[in-house]
């Protein structure tokens, strides 16, 4: 009868431990404490119940619950002085305590760590305590997690098999926190749609370099193409998968951190994998990869910014010097047309252009106008050919009828040129050829005497090149 009673009590304790651990695992800390405390009150002392109760208090992360967690651990160690899980959990609590606010608790951390190391050298609990103590040579949890997941995924025929094996083996060795982290990690990685995350775990160096090379390529493409500055924001896209993986792995570690020892289960031999080996130290290749990643990140960002700044400041500088005559045509001074256009340009480009100009060429003796050239110079680095599309719209808004529109060769100064044919009221048709580049914009208006588009385009190019002079360009007086 006593044996049956003891068996029933043990079963009730095991059930309470499993329930409290599950609640702790889900983050339902208050409910986990209630289940553990009720089981301790009714079933008597249990090292596992003390452990889960203490962890449920410590997980709250405030001073009051830390004090209660310490009281629980001390009560548990009074009854079970050599329980590794209790010693390890208490050591973590002490080592994480503020040495100014809780100096006594903080001082107990190294003593408890030494006791864990003495009772179970090399165990998961000893490594966990060493890690909390900041021991040298102890790999960080994230590195251990990635190493184990990569190893088991490579050894298993399928990712699902790897996850199942890890879950079964973690249940068989509940005291092993490393297996608990592995099981949570693989469960997270085998979910639908997470194939790219598994690939980054299995092939970390290649995928890391690929992500950062793509990041650098996007940043450098902005000034190389060139693209708008906001396009540089797309450089974060290749970095999103590594960020998502980091978040998934961190959550898996947190879930495993609520794990406490439970009754081991039997594991079929064909569902086990070898004991996880020690995590190797970073290799020279790892260090080289990290250096390349750092150099790529810094170099791409600096290169993109520098290149963009150079392009931003790099625009053609022009001086305006209209010749007194172009071939047989004279520059007409103080004509109403020239003065009106000059005043209008100054008003429109005030504070925008470095210099504006308007010139009229024709027969001085007869007072006839042959063509008009007008425009502005300055820093127009944001110039695009779309501006020339407004040429037709402006003419039509003025009540003129546009009969033809075409793109023209801008000539040796480059940029863009577009021409339109229109007919003013009670006048012969005219051709207006507008040009634009990063350092100037303007228009040449000539009469359309039916000589063809090429003649009008050529006259516009020659007039532009006669009035504007780029650094190093020869000044010529072409025939118009």
Structure description:
With 480 residues, the chain is α+β, with helices and mostly antiparallel strands. 55% of the residues lie in helices and 13% in strands. Strand 2 (325-326) and strand 3 form a beta hairpin. Helix 1 packs antiparallel against helix 2, helix 3 (47-58) runs parallel beside helix 5 (84-95) and helix 6 (103-119) packs antiparallel against helix 7. It is rod-shaped and about 125 Å long.
Compact description:
The chain contains 17 helices and 10 strands. By secondary structure, the chain is an alpha+beta fold. The radius of gyration is 40 Å and the shape is rod-shaped.
Detail the topology: elements first, then pairings:
Elements: H1 2-25, H2 29-43, H3 47-58, H4 63-79, H5 84-95, H6 103-119, H7 124-133, H8 141-155, H9 159-172, H10 177-189, H11 195-202, H12 204-224, H13 240-257, H14 284-313, E1 318-320, E2 325-326, E3 329-332, H15 336-348, E4 355-363, E5 368-377, H16 390-397, E6 401-408, E7 416-423, E8 430-436, E9 440-447, H17 453-467, E10 468-470
Antiparallel strand pairs: 1-10, 2-3, 3-4, 4-5, 5-9, 6-7, 7-8, 8-9
């Amino acid at each position: 009868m006593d044996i049956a009673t003891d068996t029933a009590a043990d079963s009730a304790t095991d059930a309470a431990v499993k329930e409290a651990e599950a609640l702790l695992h889900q983050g339902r800390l208050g409910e986990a404490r209630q289940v553990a405390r009720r089981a301790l009150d009714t079933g008597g002392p249990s090292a596992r119940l003390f452990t889960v109760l203490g962890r449920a208090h410590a997980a709250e992360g405030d001073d009051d619950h830390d004090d209660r967690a310490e009281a629980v651990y001390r009560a548990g160690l009074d009854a079970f002085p050599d329980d590794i899980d209790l010693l390890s959990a208490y050591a973590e609590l002490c080592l994480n305590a503020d040495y100014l606010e809780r100096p006594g608790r903080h001082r107990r951390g190294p003593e408890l760590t030494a006791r864990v190391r003495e009772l179970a050298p090399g165990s998961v609990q000893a490594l966990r305590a060493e890690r909390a103590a900041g021991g040298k040579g102890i790999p960080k949890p994230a590195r251990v997690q990635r190493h184990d997941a990569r190893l088991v995924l490579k050894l298993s025929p399928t990712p699902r098999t790897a996850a199942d094996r890890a879950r079964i083996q973690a249940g068989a060795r509940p005291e092993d926190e490393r297996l608990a982290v592995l099981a949570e990690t693989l469960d997270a990685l085998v979910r639908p749609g997470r194939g790219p995350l598994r690939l980054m775990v299995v092939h970390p160096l290649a995928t890391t370099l690929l992500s950062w090379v793509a990041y650098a390529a996007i940043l450098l493409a902005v000034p190389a193409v060139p693209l708008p500055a906001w396009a540089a924001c797309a450089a974060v896209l290749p970095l999103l998968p590594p960020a998502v993986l980091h978040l998934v792995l961190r959550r898996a570690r947190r879930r495993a951190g609520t794990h406490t020892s439970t009754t081991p289960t039997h594991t079929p031999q064909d569902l086990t994998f070898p004991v996880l080996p020690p995590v190797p130290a970073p290799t020279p290749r790892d260090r080289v990869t990290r250096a390349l990643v750092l150099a790529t990140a810094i170099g791409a960002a600096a290169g993109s910014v520098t290149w963009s700044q150079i392009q931003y400041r790099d625009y053609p500088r022009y001086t305006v010097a209209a010749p007194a005559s172009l071939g047989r045509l004279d520059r007409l001074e103080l004509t109403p047309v020239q003065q009106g256009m000059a005043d209008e340009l100054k008003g429109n480009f005030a504070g925008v252009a470095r210099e504006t100009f308007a010139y009229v060429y024709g027969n001085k003796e007869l007072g006839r106008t042959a063509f008009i050239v007008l425009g502005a110079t300055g820093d127009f680095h944001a110039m695009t050919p779309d501006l020339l599309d407004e040429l037709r719209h402006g003419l039509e808004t003025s009540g003129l009828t546009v009969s033809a529109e075409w793109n023209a060769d801008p000539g040796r100064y480059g940029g863009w040129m577009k021409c339109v044919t229109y007919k003013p009221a009670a006048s012969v048709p005219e051709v207006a050829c507008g040009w634009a580049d990063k350092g100037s914009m303007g228009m040449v208006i000539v009469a359309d005497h039916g000589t063809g588009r090429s003649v009008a385009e050529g006259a516009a190019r020659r007039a532009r090149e006669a009035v504007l002079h780029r650094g190093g360009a020869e000044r010529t007086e072409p025939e118009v």
